[in-house]
Amino acid sequence: MAKKHKGLMGPDPTKLQQAGNMESLPGGKMVFLAPHPLPTGEPALNEGAVSEINDSWLDYGAGWPGIFGNQLIIALSFWSFLFMAVVAPLILSPFMSPRLFNALSDGFTRNGLYMAAIGLVFGLWGVISVHSKRKK
C-alpha cells in the first residue's frame, strides 16, 4: 500500500459519518463507503487502489497509477520526440542560416529519438519497480 503523507486532510474524527456522505476537499471529494462490504460470494480484490485501511477509515484512490501512468509515460516520450524533432527547429530556424539549419536538422531528430528512448526507459523502470513492489 502507498504510504500516507503527514499533513494531508482526512475525515473529521468528531463528525459521525454515514455511507454515502461526501466532503469537499481542495483536491477533490471524500466519499464515505459502507463499513462492511456487501456479501457477493466473490473474494476481496484490491488492485492497488486502497492506500490505507484501518479500523475507522479507508483511503481509496491513492495507490499506484495504473493505466493513466502507462499512458503518461508513452505520451511524454512521444511529445519529447516531437519537441526536439519539430518544435525546437521551428523556433530556432529564424535565428540560423539555411545551411546551418540543414546541417543541424539530423541532429535534432537524433536527439529527439534519444529523449524519447530515455523517457521510455525511465518510465518502464518506474512501472517495473512499482509492479515488483506490489507483488511482494
UniProtKB/TrEMBL annotation:
Source organism superkingdom: Bacteria
Keyword entries, A-Z: Membrane, Transmembrane, Transmembrane helix
Residues covered by region (Disordered): 1-20
Membrane-spanning residues: 72-92, 112-130
Name of the protein this chain belongs to: Uncharacterized protein
Naturally occurring in which organism (per UniProt): Vreelandella olivaria
